[in-house]
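Help needed: design a sequence for this.
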């Protein structure tokens, strides 16, 4: 029987990063993956393929709507080749997954393919695709099994017309009308992909705004942009039935006044979030307690109730984000090695990869109000930047929230071009407890989108923004 210092169940961003860090720290490590490729949901049916389709559809959207104003004359009709778009997406996924396999080999990590389940608290049995099984021993075990798309109890997902994000990433035709149930990150990103490709897209959201967990100002701005792009947004709508009739899907919902409304489309994307995936782990055999919805309770060291078993990523509390899982993977590896790492969950940024992009870190204005914090706001519109006008990306703004007494930055909220990359400036500043004055006095290259951060910081220090 093979024996390891650490065995990781699941090879998504949390799992494979944990494996690499364990190996770097001199721990004999194995990783178990039930699918034939490494990378988990993020690389195979999540972050990477969705961004590939977002980029491809963005190029098409630019070609038919914006090339002419840039003086680019495309003779003849510009058409979507969906098959080629999907082929390119699959190629990007394949290259990325192969990259993870390379990293496992480079770091001498044993990769075992099959379904891993607990035999007891120090042994994991792997049922392999060929019908064989193998049991390995581990001093420490990390559960990194990720999440699956969630649904509503009354919805039957046939994965043909009533689909999840997984099926939406490999459609063979462009829907005439796609209804998206859920106005969160996944639904909005995929909704924008198909809206760009020519689908009529209708979003139905239960809460009173889209991206409801983010700052309300971001929600309002993104809603305005989507309507301008031709998407139909319906908030405060409670879906109560989804039925398929042939090639048509009929959705019934109650609007905010309680009146029943009906929507019809040829595809319905159910994007109401994700649930922890802990099915088949046989956690009881190890004594690990799993909650009703599959969530695993952990302490400040990300230990389960069984001392040598840890859990990270989507199966534990907090935002279901790949980069959060990566931080936790590194954290647990260092805890096992006897180090004293730290994660500040307040500084895990959130991003929506629509166009314009949306990103945020720290406290929202609503959270500060609820907590009774005395705060100041500095806001700067992207349309006032020379770089934004040059690229034609004038929607959005940067908003900085500071402690009114100390000037410390408490939250940064952005919507605009490339803010998914830009938010890291805010994370860095907040990690070092920067004030708005600190950011305002840093030189920002001109012309860049980043100048909006400097200008918003100037505004937060006392209405000192230069270019508005």
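Sure. Designed sequence:
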């Amino acid at each position: 029987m093979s024996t390891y210092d650490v065995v990781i169940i699941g090879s998504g961003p949390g799992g494979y990063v944990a494996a690499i860090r364990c190996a770097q720290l001199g721990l004999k490590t194995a990783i178990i993956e039930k699918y034939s490729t490494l990378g988990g949901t993020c690389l195979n049916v999540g972050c990477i393929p969705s961004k590939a389709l977002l980029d491809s559809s963005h190029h098409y959207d630019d070609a038919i709507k914006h090339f002419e104003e840039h003086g680019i004359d495309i003779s003849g009709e510009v058409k979507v080749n969906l098959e080629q778009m999907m082929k390119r997406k699959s190629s990007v996924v394949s290259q990325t997954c192969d990259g993870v396999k390379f990293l496992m080999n480079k770091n001498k990590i044993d990769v075992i393919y099959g379904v891993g389940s607990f035999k007891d608290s120090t042994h994991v049995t792997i049922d392999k695709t060929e019908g064989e099984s193998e049991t390995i021993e581990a001093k420490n075990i990390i559960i990194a099994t990720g999440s699956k798309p969630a649904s509503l109890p009354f919805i039957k997902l046939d994965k043909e017309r009533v689909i999840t994000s997984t099926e939406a990433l490999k459609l063979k035709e462009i829907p005439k009308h796609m209804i998206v149930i859920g106005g969160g990150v996944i639904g909005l990103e995929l909704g924008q992909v198909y809206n760009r490709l020519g689908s009529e897209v209708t979003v139905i959201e239960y809460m009173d705004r889209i991206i409801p967990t983010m700052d309300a100002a971001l929600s309002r701005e993104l809603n305005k942009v989507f309507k301008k792009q031709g998407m139909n947004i319906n908030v405060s709508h409670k879906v109560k039935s989804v039925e398929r009739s042939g090639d048509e899907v009929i959705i019934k919902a109650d609007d905010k006044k309680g009146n029943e409304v009906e929507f019809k489309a040829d595809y319905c994307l159910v994007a109401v979030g994700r649930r922890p995936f802990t099915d088949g782990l046989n956690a009881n055999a190890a004594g690990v307690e799993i909650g009703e919805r599959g969530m695993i309770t952990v302490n400040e060291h990300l230990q389960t109730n069984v001392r040598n078993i840890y859990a990270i990523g989507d199966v534990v509390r907090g935002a279901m984000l790949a980069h959060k899982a990566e931080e936790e993977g590194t954290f647990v590896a260092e805890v096992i090695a006897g180090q004293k790492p730290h994660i500040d969950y307040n500084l895990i940024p959130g991003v929506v990869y629509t166009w314009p992009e949306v990103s945020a870190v720290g406290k929202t204005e609503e959270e500060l109000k609820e907590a009774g914090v005395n705060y100041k706001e500095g806001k700067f519109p992207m349309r006032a930047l020379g770089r934004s006008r040059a690229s034609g990306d004038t929607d959005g703004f940067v908003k900085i929230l500071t402690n009114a007494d100390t000037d410390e930055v408490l939250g940064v909220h952005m919507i605009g071009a490339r803010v998914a990359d830009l938010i890291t400036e805010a994370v860095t500043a907040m990690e070092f407890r920067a004030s708005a004055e600190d950011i305002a006095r840093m030189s920002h290259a001109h012309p860049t989108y980043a100048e909006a951060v400097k200008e918003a910081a100037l505004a937060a220090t006392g209405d000192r923004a230069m270019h508005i």
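The longest strand covers residues 133-143.
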